[in-house]
Structures are given as structure tokens and as C-alpha cells.
Amino acid sequence: MSNERFTTSREVYHRIRWDPRLDAREFVIGYDAHGETMEEMPFEAFVPDGELPWHRVWYFKRGREVVWDRKERIDRLSHPAPSEDPPAPAPRRAPAAFTSLPAHRFDAHAEAWVTAVAPSTKPPAREQLTVVTFNVLFDLYDAELLDTARRIPAALALLRETDADVIALQEVTAPFLRALLAEPWVREHYWLSDGPEASTVATYGQVLLSRVPFSSLVQRVFSRDKRLIAGELRVADGTLWVATPHLTSNRDASGAAARAVQVQAILDWALALGASEEGRPPDLVLAGDFNLGESSSEAESFARAGFVDAWPMLRPMELGETYNPQLNSLAALTTTSGRLQRLDRVLVKSASGRLVPQAIELFGEAPLPGGPGPSGEPLFASDHFGIRCVLRRGSVAETDSARGTARLVHQTAVVLIPPESAWPPIQALRKKHDAKFERWMPHVTLLYPFLPEEDFDTVAALFEEALRDIEPFEVTLSTFGHFEHRANATAWLRPDDEPRGALAALHAKLAAVVPECASPERGFSPHLSVGQLPRSKDVDLEQTLATWARTWRALSFPIGDVCLIRRKGDTPFEVIRRIPLGRAARQQPPASTKGDSTLRAALASTNTPASREARASAVEQLRGLCERVGTSLHPYGSYLLGTDEAGSDVDAVAIGPSSLSRDDFAQALLREVATSAPAAASSARFVADAAIPLVKLSLGGVSFDVSYASRPEGVAPCEPLTLLAQHGPQLDTSGLRSVLGVADSQGVLDVLGADEATHERFRNLLRAVKRWAKARGIYSHALGYLGGLSWTVLAAWACTRGAPDAVKSDAELLAHFFHTFATWPWPQPVALTSETARYRPDGRRDLMPVIAPAEPPRNTARNVSRSTFRTVRDELTRARELVAEARASSSPRAWEPLFQPVDAARDLPARLRLSVDAPTPEAHEAAMGWVLGHLTALVYRLEGDRRLSVRPLQGPQALFMGLDTRQTQDAGALSWTPGSPLSEAVATFQTSFQEWTNRPKDTVLQVELLRG
Asked: What pTM was estimated for this model as a whole?
């Protein structure tokens, strides 16, 4: 290909967009975002000649295969590789370069700071190493309110008191550095990463101090003020690297994207560092301001790379917020969200297996003495609290124990929750005094932190067995108490149990199942938190609680279950599982008598034997027509699975010889229909520009979508699965996808096995799920939700993974389905076979991976976007609750809310209405088909405004896009004025429609914003 002109990115784009053999929805575009790594966007989100110029497009991928790459000069679309060659992986970038820094120490003879080289002799062995990190707060903004002249000496005094071996500082300015360099204790004991020239702190930056001489110092500059500074320390038994990052915060509009690049650069450096060392890799400590949330993907990336977060490992019962606007007046001044956050961290990666976090604490939590600051509020040393962490050289066994503890997460817990009827007086108190009112429901903690959510199924089964002997009991909240911390106190209500000892027995049973979640040294002190109180000479804690007690009335309620709860991101905790206690478990009525008859009455299927017979007859009639044109017909999908109903379309593929092209097959079949079934000929047509070209026709009132695949030259007629296994790589894209439809349907049947009872349960479940999904508007791959194959895979998974004794009835199986997938830990894939379970999510198209049963592994839900993911998840949660209510009722009408259709005017207060004006019904159908097929492109463009969530919905004559903003302050996202992001996205979509080459004449796309 070196002697040929290389295809341009513009040409590749238009080839993918207009070639009927290619499905644009399968492609992503890699582009240069002016960062350190490439970013990707869905193909349909790219705007030709828009803000992103063509020269910044570097590659196109279909799935994981790179089909065009500017740098590597790959063009698999114009020059396909031989079928036996595996697809080339995306290029892997080398770790970003680091630059050297000089180390500084104070020369007492010269009375000056000088650059220096570490001595060749190693220092004595150290059993402990104390590391401190502190963001000291620059005064580039609001300087008049920060009183930096008072804060700098106070911060230096705090740092001296930590007696640290290594100190990592962020937001250091030149004046702070000058004051630091002047400190006698610094001059006497420490090596520094910067000196009087202040090269890394203009305008502000980071400084690393170490009592152990630096063998080397390097930095990775992310921006003018953000960087990573790393120092190599030679210790007696190896090498230790200590690095301080200061990552970009969310104050910056592109903060998340910049931070992702920075995190990846650090991880790449850590990986390269280990690979470059002779012998075993060095130990590594990261101490700094990470600007990460507790459940962020970046934090998970560090954990996957082997870093242990010292705070949750050592103090799992405390959140450890280093940025607390409720206690710290400077944080209240600098915050934009008002949230309490643990932004500063100490992460440890010990390749030696011996560097173990031993103790950790905050410092700088108390106001400075000497009166208030300029704002009239108490003055603190910084808007951040600092962290002091003691590390020690431990045994490998101790490190293994630490790793086990580090597996616990703060996004899950096991708790007791009072019945909602008891909440009002508790919530009235919490709303006034509890900073975590929005995060937690009223609860008594039993185990926290707890295991990751993916372990819930296993641990719930173990808990159910362990709690059979624990009878329900009563709790009374009558007495207040408190726990004292360094800067505040937690106020709580004591849960007195009846019979006495019931709570302790319950906790002991749970701890026996998961001992790693209940370490003995922490003990068990049952309490229901109601608020935080400041600790100061002006607040008498005992008197405050006594005042509360005088107006509090003892509150009693029964406890009949234990709750497993979780939270995602910044969302509140929610109940995922309820484990009944003793008699409560035994008293659950049998499912077989509690819902099946009413569920069947609500569904009242129209799939009568007569309607099934009519479809079978129509299939045989079409089979004969296909044989006349030299092809064999193979139905798949709901017809093959037996889950079709009256009115269902029949999907099928016709397979013919290599000499018969797709166009020739379509025209021949249409002629046969016109000859043999003239009544159906008027509605029969060939849709050539679909992602998979189809012949659409109707026979005997049954609608068909017939695709076509031609056998490779020289291949004799054979069954579809044989054709796929032996000649799949030689099929064109449309033919391959059509035959895979047969293989996927057969794969589902194979997973279900030979037991007819299992097949019947599956069919009943899938019919109910399809009825629900269609009513709620989420049964559509084109709209960005889940299509028929996706829902089929989920139903098959629920049928084959549910314990037989636990899902004996249709109603219980439906409850199991909704509970399972409402709490599924996406993007963990749902797969039916061990082969397809190897699928690994990759990028934005894999938010909700539901993997097809046949190989190669494919995500059947690649159109799911940020907004539609939220919609599907919310609908699953709603359905779970409604099924529970319906099962408790004996009336078929109790199931009606589950299948209640979405009403655009009622349920989507703000929405776009997309309709087409066309001169003929055929033109209207074709134009609406284009809109439906390209709707995900509009969804992606609208989602470019992060304030906006979108809910596509198909109406009888139009398509709707529900628009929603979660926060009141984001209402500007619904602006319909010229130039607004909303109107620009719509205008771009309308332009694409106008540029559609095959647009029927005189068709016009109308888009209007409706409110109310």
C-alpha cells in the first residue's frame, strides 16, 4: 500500500456513513484532544467540518479492531487484511517522559541552600517512615480573606510537629517556599525538591521534603501549576519512590478529562518504573491532593494497579474528609459544591510485600488561636486538613492481611433500617444536625465498610442461612450519646434491643460469615447517628444532648430484616437486598400461591394456538417462495425461541449461492410474491440502505423481515451454523450479521438445555419482560435502549442463574429478573457462556454490556448512552418495586402499574418532538426510518451538554426526546434560543437530514420544543 495514495480521514468518514454494507453505529473515532492520550467518540457524534478538524482524526475502530490509522497507515476498509490475520490492536503509547530536577540541601558552612548529590552510603535501616501531605492553600484569589501572613507560620509549625520523614506540599507559592527554606528545622534535617530559585512554584506548585537524601528527583509537568514530583530514596533494604501529585479539580470545565490523562500518566510511570528496576520493583508511595471522589473511576484505576489507600484500610469506620466546608471556614469560602470530600490521600504500592501502613490521622483540623480571620469566621491554616501516615516494614503475612482489608469498599454496608413510619422524628433531628443527611437513610450500622457489590449474591445466600436462627426483635431509641473526634463529635441515639442481646447476637452471626468486615479491635457499638457537633469551649456536648433529650419521645419499632445497601458516585445509599430474620423468613408465603394466577390474568396473552399456527403456515409459504429463487429460509429470533405473539414480526435469513447477489435475490423474491401472493405485493419492498438490507413483506397477515447471505464460491448448501463455523470470515458484513442472528437464537436454546419446563418458564418470563419494556418505551436498540436480543439474553441469564428452589413460579422469576438487573454492577458484562464471558468492556459504547451467545463475543447493547443507561436503570428499579407490590396483592389489577405505558405529555414535561412532513406514506415511512436509524447521533450531541439527560420515546406518528436536568441551576440547558447548545444540536441533526442523499423529495424534518 506504500505506493498508493493513502485514504484521508474525510473519505473514510463518508465511506462508513454512506456504504450500506457498513453500520455506522459500530464505529468509533479516535482523535487528538490536545492532551497526552487520544480520546474517542461514537462515530455518529462526530460533526463533519465542525469544531474537530479532520487532521486531528487519527483512527477509526469497529469494536476493538482498528480499521484506519493515520500514523500506522492502516486502511482495512479499502485494503482488507487476509481473513486469517488477527485484527491489529490499537497502538499502545509509551509512558510520558519525566524530566530531572536537582535536589537541594542547606550547607551550614556556606550558610546557603545548594544543589547536592546523595552520598553513596545507604542510611541505616528504618522500621518506620512517616509521610505527610498538606495542601497549604495559595492566596492568588480572595487574598484579603485568607490572611496568608498569619497562616504561613501556623502551617510551618503544624508541619514541624508532625515530625515527618517525608513531607509533600501542594499549592506552594514563592513566599511560602522562602519561609519554608528559612525554617531552622528544615535547614537542619531535610532535602528539598526546590530551592531559592523557586522553579516549580510559579505561580504555585508542589515541593517534596525528605530526611532521607534524594538519590534522584524527577517531575512530570501536566500544566503550568499541576505536576507530579517524585523522589527516589535509597533505604537499607531496597529502593523507595515517594511522589506527590496535585491533580486537576472539577472547578475546571474539562477537569475530569484532564485528570484522567494525569492518572494514566502516573500509572504508566509506575508500571515503567517497576519494569526498569533490576531485581524486584521498588516500593512506591503517592501522597498528595488527588481531587478524586470516593467512587471515581480514577480511584478504582489506582486500586487495580495495586495501590492500597491507607485511610480506608486503617480507619474504615471514618470517612476522613480532608476538605470539610462545614467545619473549615476556608473550605466554606473556596468550595463550589459544599460537599465534604476526601481529596487528599496516601496510596502505597509495595512490590516487596513489606511496606505496610500502620497509622494515619488528620492534622490542621482546629482553628488557629488568636481570634477570627478577616471574614469574621475562625481562621484555619488551610482549606484542606493534612494527613500524617506512618508506614512500617512488616512481614509478607501482614501485607496479605492488609490486602484483604483493602478489598472492602465504602460504597456498601450492612445495616438495620427502621420502618419508614418511624422516620419523621429521626429525620427532623438529622436534617438539622447531620451533614450526611442526604447520603444515608436512618440506620444502625452492622458492617461497614463492606464487600463490593458483585459479591452481594453470594454473601446474601450465606447471610440467609446464618440468620435463620435469629428471631425478629424490637428496638427502642430513647437515650442520646456521642463519640468524640479530634475536631467534632458524632451525636447518636442508642438502640436498646428487646430481648436484650439480640443486636449483639445478630452482629456476631454476620461477623462469623465475613470476619474481614468486623475486626475485633473496632468492636461493635450499635448506634443511630443523628448529627455532628463542633468541639470547642463554647459548646457543652452533654448539655446540648440533654436539651435534645427533653423534647425527644422514646421511639420503638420492630426489626425483621437486615439490609445490604450501596451507593454509586455521589448518589445516596439505596437498599439492594433485604435478608429476613428467623420467623420472618419462614413466614414468607410460598411464591407459587402468591402471584402466578394474577400475573397470567394481567398478561392475558393473545398468542393462541390458532395465531401460532397461522404464523407457522406463513413461514412455510415464504420458505417455498425462497426455494423457488434458489435459497433456503431460516427464521430466528422470537419465532425460533417460541416467544412470538400475535402481531410479532418474523425475522429470517435466506441463504443462497455466491452467484446470486443480494439485489438479485431481493428482486427475484419480490417477483415471486407478486406472482404467488398478489395481495401482499403492494406492501412488499426492498430496503437497500438499511444497516442490514431487508426485504419487508407480509403473508397471511404475518410481517417478515428477510435478510440475505450468499455462500462463498464453491461452498455447497449447508446449515447456517455450519456455514458460520467453516466460512464465517468469508461472508460480507450484512450476511455475517444475518447468520449470526440464527446462531444467537440457537445459542439461547442451547443454554436453556433440554428441560421443557425451563423453556416454558423462559418463554413466560420473556413475554412479560417484552410487554413491560415496550410499554415503558425501552424495547428499542435504535432509540439507544436494549433490543430484542439483549432482553432475551437477560431473561435467559435470569432463568439459568436463579436457584431453582428460590424461583419456583413465574411471578417469583419475574421478581428475580428485576431485582438482579436493577442491582447489576454495570459495566460488568452479562454473558451466557464461558466463551462470551471473556468480553471486556471498552469505552463509551460499553456502558451496559449484554453479550450475544454466539462467538465472536459482541455487545448487543452498544447504542446505550449515558442518558439511556440511566433510563433503563431507573425503569428496572421502578419495576422491581412494582412487582413486589403486585405479588403482595391478590388482584390482577395490581400488575397494571408495571405495564403502564409512558405518556409523552404526562411523563416528559420538556421534550423535543421530531416529525416528518412527506408527500406520500412511502416517503414518510422512509424518512422516519432515517430519523430512527440516526437518532443516537442526536442523543450523543445533546449529551455533549453534561447538564442534560435525554429520554428518547417512539410515539405513533412522531419521535420524542424527553429532556431533563437534575439540578435547578442547570435549567439553562433547556434554552431554545439561537446559538444555545440545544438548538445547535438540533440544527446539526436537521442539516444531516437535508444532506441525506436518498432523502425522498419534498420531505421535511420538523423539530419543536414542547413544555408541559
From this structure: 0.51
